[in-house]
Amino acid sequence: MSGRVFRLHSTLELPLEDVETYFDEDPDLPPEIDDIDITRRNNTLIIKAISDDESISKYTPTAQLKASVTETRVYEEEPPRAGGPQWMDDDEEPIPSELVEFACFKGDRETVLQNTALQYPMFLVLRELALLSEKGTLTAITEQGGELEATRIVEGERRPASVEVVESPQGAGEGDSGINWRDNKFIS
For 130, what's the count of Cα atoms within 13 Å in the CB-facing half-sphere? Predict the structure, then answer.
């Protein structure tokens, strides 16, 4: 399978536990990916593709997904909104909550999906993670087999997406509204 990722933007947030469970359950990985190596360095999660191709040198950096890990307080019910009193009565109990670590795949292609070897197969892994996410979006333009494909996943659901080719405004030609630096009377 060969393919390319041209554009990618992600705002996905998944509980870290869900990401770990997904990989622990031995998911169906693309055939080019033999295994996945998950490393956590402080507040950064790196999910690296390990190739099954002997022609890829062990020194060639393979594609990896990069996420920041943040802690978020999750309440069992909605906390009171701003504008109301912020203090509690002595008989009122606090709303039950817990701190949950989230893996945040946020940014563009170079931020979220790094390195080019096995980049498209690793995008397919990210797409599967996006389908598990309840928060955030994944949009991408990819190519496989000479065909462009648009991907849009919002809060775990596939949404319609299309690729539209438009004429660039920079190449407008003679009627350009830009400054003509050669015949500018303010430059001597």
Answer: 27
CB-hemisphere CA count at 13 Å for 29? Answer: 20
The answer, as to whether pTM is greater than 0.90, is no
Q: What pLDDT, in 10s, does the model give residues 20-32?
A: 999 999 899 999 9
Q: How far apart are CA 1 and CA 72, in angstroms?
A: 38
Cα separation of 8 and 161, whole Å? 13
Instruction: Please give the Cα distance from 12 to 153 (Å, whole number).
Output: 10
Token pair in block for residue 143: 């190519």
Tens-place pLDDT, residues 79-120: 556 555 555 555 567 778 888 899 999 999 889 999 988 999
Q: Which two tokens stand for residue 161?
A: 């997406």
User: Rounded to whole angstroms, what are the CA distances from 124 to 2, 31, 81, 93?
Assistant: 12, 11, 39, 45
